[in-house]
Design goal:
This protein folds into 3 domains: 233 residues, Rossmann fold, CATH 3.40.50; 211 residues, P-loop containing nucleotide triphosphate hydrolases (Rossmann fold), CATH 3.40.50.300; 70 residues. It is 45% helix and 19% strand. It is built from 21 helices and 20 strands. The strands form 5 sheets. It has a 6-stranded mixed sheet with strand order 5-6-7-3-8-9, sandwiched between helices. α7 links the parallel β6 and β7. The longest helix is centred in the middle third of the chain and has 35 residues. The two termini are 56 Å apart. 29% of the residues are buried.
Amino acid sequence: MTPYIQAENLSKRIGDLLLFENISFTIFKDQKVALIAKNGTGKTTLLELLSARDSPTDGKITVTNDIKIGYFEQIPKLNTTNSVFDEIFQSDSEKLKAIQDFELAVKHNNQDEISKASAKIDLLGAWDIEVTIKQILTKLKITNYEQKVGTLSGGQQKRLALAKVLIDEPDLLIMDEPTNHLDLEMIEWLEEYLKRSNATLLMVTHDRYFLDRVCNEIVEMDNNQIYRYNGNYTYFLQKREERIQQFQSSVEKAKNLLKTELEWIRRMPKARGTKAKYRIDSFYELKEKAGQRVKDENIDLSVGTSRLGKKIIEINNVSKSYGEIDLITNFSYNFSRFEKIGLVGNNGTGKTTFLNILTESISPDKGKIEIGKTVKFGYYKQDGIHFKPKDKVIDAVNKIAEYIYFGNGQKMSSTQLLTRFLFPPETQYSYIEKLSGGEQRRLYLCTVLMQNPNFLILDEPTNDLDIMTLNVLEEYLAEFPGCVVIVSHDRFFMDKIVDHLFVFDGKGAVKDFPGNYTLYRSWLEENNQKAKTTKEPKPVANHQKEAQKSVGKRKLSFNEKREFEQLETEIAKMETEKSQLEEELNSGGLSHEELFKKSEQLNHLKMQLDEKELRWLELSELVD
């Protein structure tokens, strides 16, 4: 395997903050690697070091000669005075430079230069580069090529930066959260593009479906150690758990052995021989090992909710448009307790508008919304809070309340709350500007949940949160005793949380789909396939018509019959198991650890059950 980039004993310190120390790893040609670590451990900083945007405090980075590195960063640096097309051509790409030279030669009618540029384009196979550019821009919903970069929205600028790095065709592609600001359709396109691409890939992403389908290796940075897993996200979860269990087992053995050695040390006479000295040295090594622990702290979101009455929100024939664009037309819906709804639709189809109508931030053009007296919103907005950089972390919480009061009469101080959200006391008195992007999002989540909402509205809550925090947030939302409405491009997150979807088509229609995102996509693809294969029937002779009648619809094969019968048995057993798990979770007698394990089992079971029910439905259509 050819090493593309090597990191040796890398350390990075920013002021008095040590992000990581003495870490080493190598990225080899053709690998597609995901970097996983908790927020605040320096993922983005590490990518900046590897792409030569920054320098390490200590250590060395070696790049193989002649490889081209492309870096997609979270906050793109673009020339706002350029047009979209001009910005694309601001590149070191040989193909793009050859096209520029050709166009310049044609402009000045310089035949010698035209011949040279043509030969270079032939050599590079670059004649179709403009088609490639337009294809990628179109997939990323950027269609006005003459528009000035400065007039694009923040999301459009990120997509332009993504298009730019893909068009450059680097040998090593480094990407920091590439799925942020992409809608679901774009994410699925990018997923397929990267799977087919010959580029070696190193990326940070919280999108677990994306990670699972694109990457073939995972590098985990944990407690200043690097762990490699030769597989996708599913494999990583399994092996990481095994690693933690093995580590805990070895520490436990060391503790037991330490007790024996401690007794020997206490009994040992003062005159120590050589063998005794060796055993004493071993004792101190053992003591150090026994004192180790896995720093696998999890955010604790159990901050309580307000009581929710019978009347929640009633939407009656609501419509909203901007100019000639109809976003919502005559939509009605009554919310029920414990509902968890996902909003689906391309960017600009009205999802955020709907959330703002729900919370009465904007008014509908017609129709009305009635909100129950007990409803208490918690609105996590996509653009978040604009914290004051010079405020301390504790200040952001104290501005809302110094104490959080619960319905059972208990209270919690702002310091205790922040500790639950993994902000230790030393961090609480640090300036907000020193927090990573993910830590600032976690702080924002804290300020939303501390107000004890019973109706949560989450607009892209997964952006910049690490995978560990997302896992805990998912468990919290699954058990949340109120209503939840979610807009998210994270398909894994949506599948785990929502019961059904509101689908926005961008023309005013909002449809209620009974299932999660994966079921919706399967249904959509099936309908699209049917539409493609449905053709006008050709005239056939009478004997052909009779033959067609005798054939009828396709019947189940022998193996399909066995599968169908087996599915009925399995689904019944799984439904029973699901009921038992739900009963145990609601019993109130489980420990925190048992609750976590049972919740994990239930979520896994629900996903399996969804797949089996979908297959059962497919086969049931063929049953006589």
